[in-house]
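Priority: medium. Attachment 1 of 2:
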């Protein structure tokens, strides 16, 4: 078994370990064993982090764009060099296959490279008045940013919290998930090693509610960015509103997939079955409700079940594993509850539906069909390895079902009809729409949702601008 790194806080550039602090255990979801002890920041630690963030903001904001870009690029290079070790730790704490852990970490480095380039493309505009006076619109970093990242993408989520903020010239305090801390610590360390001041990028852990109340209760923090469930997002948005802090919320989803009879069905099956079971379905943009035109339903259903049954489930460190365990026992409980409720309501369980073994948190890739809309799983995000396949007829009805829920993160469609693609792009309520693809994320394109899936964007130019505020200078 590979070793798992020592865990610590990073405050003011200093690594702070257990030293009498409260702590919690980190569990390997493939074995259920404890692999690390994570120190919790004390209230004094958090106050120190806030003071550092204030100082770090002034220093980093006043660092030239060229220099910021060079440092962020250097950090991206360090992350790539260290990606093998980061991925080992990530798989041990989160469970996903090693190749996915490495791919995710390389993607985080690529996102940072993109942001490094954006440092030099923060433009304002000037309006020249007839009298010779002028009005200039400038963009300034908003101030210190607090970012709270979840456990499903321990590298990428952390980079999404800090990359855009650092490019904008903000300082950041990030709290990766306490369940998957090592990857986030490694990313922050790489930024410090590359030259970001230790006051400008910090990493803390603790009881989430205590840390978020402490940081959001301080006037030093000017922006909150959170990824996680809609319920926690709403709670944090209220806390941030007390002090009118700017917020970016990347919350839950319930990805509809509209499969039309004119589509390349084999292509849709190969792509979407792979996407469904990636990271054991614990992906905010996971495809979940498959709405399949009746004429092709049987073919799609049988092909999906065949592919689900072939997914190789195992420890993410083992060669050939395609799906690891769920990241925590809450995920298993949720699957049991939702699948049980779906079959009670008349849905058909075509494959899977059971936990695998009693060690770690493994669950079978599962497929449900013909599930009525009043079943819980048709309304609550399953966040696990389960697909729901329902036959439908007519584009209007399919769009209506896609838009029925309050969520609107990612949606997908498979069709060869160009006119239909345009109609879908206009009418499907989602922050991202994948047509004939499962890829809805790119470093240079905004990533975010609508309705209960949140607001504000990460990635792309929008991810930097989300950390900036305009100042209009009127010159007489
Ligand atoms: P959760 O919302 O309780 O936790 C998600 C993350 O938010 C965790 O890392 C947690 O540490 C953090 N968090 C929780 N309360 C917080 C607080 N008061 N202040 C700051 N951070 C806080 O969800 P969970 O139990 O981990 O998972 C439940 C559901 O959340 C999932 O089934 C899924 O629907 C959703 N979720 C979504 C994403 C996403 O990528 N959008 C990621 C993780 C979980």
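Attachment 2 of 2:
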């Amino acid at each position: 078994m590979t070793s798992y790194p020592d865990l610590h806080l990073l405050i003011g550039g200093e690594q702070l370990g257990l030293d009498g602090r409260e702590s919690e255990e980190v569990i390997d979801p493939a074995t259920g064993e404890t692999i690390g002890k994570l120190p919790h920041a004390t209230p004094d630690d958090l106050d120190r982090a806030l003071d550092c963030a204030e100082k770090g903001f002034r220093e980093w904001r006043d660092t030239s764009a060229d220099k910021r870009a060079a440092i962020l690029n250097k950090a991206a290079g360090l992350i790539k060099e260290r990606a093998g070790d980061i991925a080992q730790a990530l798989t041990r704490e989160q469970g996903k296959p090693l190749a996915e852990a490495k791919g995710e970490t390389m993607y985080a480095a690529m996102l940072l490279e993109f942001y490094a380039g954006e440092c030099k493309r923060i433009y304002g505009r000037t309006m020249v008045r007839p009298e010779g006076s002028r009005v200039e619109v400038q963009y300034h970093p908003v101030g210190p940013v607090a970012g709270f990242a979840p456990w499903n993408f321990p590298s990428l989520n952390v980079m999404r919290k800090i990359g855009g903020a650092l490019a904008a010239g903000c300082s950041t305090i990030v709290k990766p998930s306490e369940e998957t801390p090592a990857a986030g610590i490694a990313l922050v360390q790489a930024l410090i090693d590359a030259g970001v001041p230790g006051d400008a990028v910090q990493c803390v852990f603790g009881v989430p509610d205590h840390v978020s109340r402490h940081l959001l209760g301080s006037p030093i923090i000017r922006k909150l960015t959170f990824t996680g469930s809609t319920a926690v997002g709403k709670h944090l948005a209220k806390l941030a509103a007390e002090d009118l802090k700017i917020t970016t919320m990347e919350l839950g989803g319930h990805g509809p997939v509209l499969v039309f009879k004119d589509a390349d069905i084999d292509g849709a099956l190969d792509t979407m079955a792979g996407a469904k079971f990636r990271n054991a379905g614990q992906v905010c943009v996971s495809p979940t409700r498959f709405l399949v035109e009746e004429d092709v339903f049987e073919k799609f259903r049988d092909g999906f079940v065949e592919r689900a049954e072939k997914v190789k489930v195992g420890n993410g460190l083992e060669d050939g594993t395609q799906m690891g365990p769920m990241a925590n026992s809450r995920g298993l409980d949720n699957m049991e509850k939702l699948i049980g409720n779906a079959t009670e309501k008349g849905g058909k369980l075509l494959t899977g539906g059971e936990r695998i073994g009693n060690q770690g948190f493994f669950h079978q890739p599962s497929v449900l069909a013909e599930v009525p809309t009043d079943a819980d799983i048709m309304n609550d995000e399953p966040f696990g390895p389960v697909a729901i396949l329902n036959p439908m007829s007519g584009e209007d009805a399919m769009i209506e079902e896609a838009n029925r829920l309050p969520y609107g993160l990612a949606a997908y469609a498979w069709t060869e009809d160009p006119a239909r693609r345009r109609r879908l792009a206009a009418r499907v309520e989602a922050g991202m729409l994948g047509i004939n693809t499962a890829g809805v994320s790119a470093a240079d394109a905004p990533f975010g949702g609508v309705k209960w899936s949140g607001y504000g964007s990460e990635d792309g130019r929008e991810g930097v601008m989300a950390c900036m505020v305009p100042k209009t200078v009127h010159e007489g």
